[in-house]
Amino acid sequence: MKKYDNTIEYHELLMTYNDTSKSLNYNLPDGYHYSFYKPGDEKDWAQIHIESGEFMSIEHGLKHFHDFYDSFIDELPKRCFFVENDKNEKVGTATISLLQNSEYGYDAVVDWFAIKRSYQGKHLAKPMVVYFIKLAHDLGHSKLLLHTQTTSWLAANLYLDCGFEPFKVENDIKGWQILNTITNNPKLKQYGKVSQEKIYSPLALGIVKELNKLYSDDYDFAFWDKKGRNDIEVNHHGQLDKYQYYFIDNQLILENSLRKENDWCRFHFSITIFS
Question: Residue 222's closest CA among 8, 55, 46?
Answer without folding.
Answer: 55
